[in-house]
Design brief:
- This protein is of the alpha/beta class.
- It contains 13 helices and 13 strands.
- The strands form 3 sheets. A 7-stranded mixed beta sheet has the order 1-9-8-5-4-2-3, with helices on both faces. A 3-stranded antiparallel beta sheet has the order 7-6-11, with no helix packed on it. It has a 3-stranded antiparallel beta sheet with strand order 10-12-13.
- Helix 1 runs antiparallel to helix 7 (248-257) and helix 8 runs parallel beside helix 13.
- The structure holds pyridoxal-5'-phosphate.
- Residues 62-64, 88-89, 91-92, 134, 160, 162-163, 186, 188, 199 line the site of pyridoxal-5'-phosphate.
């Protein structure tokens, strides 16, 4: 690999792809006189459903809200259990807790960092209601195995697809298979498609639609057949609901992003594969698994894992050294047990933990870092990062050797 000098500009780990189309769409919307939920949101929802090959998509304030609404639509609450991965963003697990159910954590596969489907069956109890897999970093989980377990045990599947809008499983978009009751996408700025903030829930059984719409907006029911916003100003509230709606300004951003999403993913794939080939020469770090014919990776994150025994440094030292090289990194994510609430929670709910612990999730969370990856990056940017990683690792190796020398020399001095 060709060595490159330290970058003179900072490269962030992620940057949203906002073009002139997004800007023009926002300006048009702001000028239109209708800026909150309205016609553009409706158009965006239709475009989302078409893109994801699902009968219905509802746009929401966030993916977090989408997960909450999915669990609520399934009637999951007090006394129930939901099986999910130990390696996820905290909101996946918090939503289960907020509904009064217990998240039952399953360890990850060491290579993909996705929930290990082979460890699900042993955690099923009479209280289990659903399986909640997360497609980490953009790599789909082994869904056939998850659906098969769900079918055998009569469990619902809710996919946390925050990272995987645009990825495919077995040739189909994530969310498109009716064996999952719900799939939830995120449009946070770090995700492959952004609407500033936002998310969407995809589903197949249209009987859920009324519940989701009520829960999305104050439990307000509008008269049938009265198109909003022209409908009657009077309404009923058949149930208390949340305020989780989407705005037309966000929809304008999303409508401009959606036609570019596949090209974004293709570019991410190219850059990720360049990283994989450059860093395959650095045995001190562990590389993320690529997709395959069945699981098409959309590379939302490129997650490198430090091997501390080989680099003689902790992850945080390594990310600080990369920062000094003007290379930004992210942490996706801190482990659940680094949070005070969850340390207490799982003391009180040992049923949420496997008896043999979560060794792969623990090792992953301690050592991981997300390297810069976004479609506007150049190949030179990737080469810069590759060189920076090699320099940082080589410095660690030198330090380890020096330390060893001091020890052996002082050993020799001991009479
Ligand atoms: C980003 C993310 C979420 C939350 O998405 P928001 O739209 O910010 O609520 C949920 N789950 C995972 C796996 C995520 O990465």
């Amino acid at each position: 690999m060709q060595e490159r000098p330290r970058r003179d500009t900072f490269l962030p780990f992620s940057r949203p792809m906002i073009g002139e189309e997004e800007i023009a769409g926002v300006v048009d919307t702001l000028r239109s006189g209708w800026i909150t939920t309205g016609p553009r949101s409706a158009r965006f929802e239709e475009a989302l459903a078409a893109f994801n090959e699902v009968p219905r998509c509802l746009a929401l304030l966030s993916a977090t809200t989408g997960l909450e609404l999915a669990l609520s639509a399934l009637g999951i609450g007090e006394g129930d259990e939901v099986i999910t991965t130990a390696h996820t963003f905290v909101c996946t697990v918090s939503n289960v807790v907020l509904r009064g159910a217990v998240p039952v954590l399953v360890d990850v596969e060491p290579d993909t960092m996705n929930l290990d489907a082979g460890r699900i069956a042993e955690r099923i109890t009479p209280r289990t209601k659903a399986i909640l897999p997360v497609h980490y970093g953009g790599l789909p989980c082994r869904m056939d195995r998850i659906w098969e377990i769900a079918r055998r045990h009569g469990l619902a599947v809710v996919e946390d697809a925050a990272h995987t809008m645009g990825a495919r499983y077995a040739g189909r978009r994530i969310g498109s298979d009716p064996r999952s009751a719900f799939s939830v996408y995120s449009f946070h700025p770090n995700k492959n498609l952004t609407t500033i903030e936002g998310g969407a829930i995809a589903f197949h059984d249209l009987r859920h639609e009324a519940h989701l719409k009520l829960q999305r907006f104050h439990g307000i029911a509008r008269g049938a057949g009265t198109p909003y916003p022209e409908g009657s100003p009077l309404y009923d509230v058949p149930t208390p609901g949340r305020k989780s709606n989407f705005t037309d300004v966000q929809a304008a951003v999303g409508l401009a992003q959606l036609p570019k999403l596949d090209a974004f993913a293709a570019r991410r794939r190219e850059l990720a594969r360049l990283y994989l080939s450059l860093l395959s020469e650095v045995p001190e770090v562990e590389l993320p698994a690529d997709g395959d014919a069945e699981r098409e990776h959309c590379w939302n994150l490129f997650v490198l894992r430090n091997r501390p025994e080989a680099t003689a440094m902790a992850r945080d030292e390594m990310t600080a050294a990369l920062k000094a090289e003007n290379v930004g990194t992210g942490i996706h994510w801190q482990g659940l047990f680094s949070f005070s609430f969850y340390r207490d929670y799982f003391e009180r709910h040992p049923e949420g933990l496997p008896k043999d612990g979560l060794p792969h999730a623990a090792r992953t969370t301690e050592n991981l870092m997300s390297l810069p990856l976004f479609p506007a990056m150049t190949e030179e940017d990737v080469l810069d990062v590759g060189s920076a990683v090699r320099r940082v690792v080589a410095a660690g190796r030198r330090r380890a050797r020096a330390k060893e020398r001091v020890w052996t020399e002082s050993d020799r001095r001991v009479p």
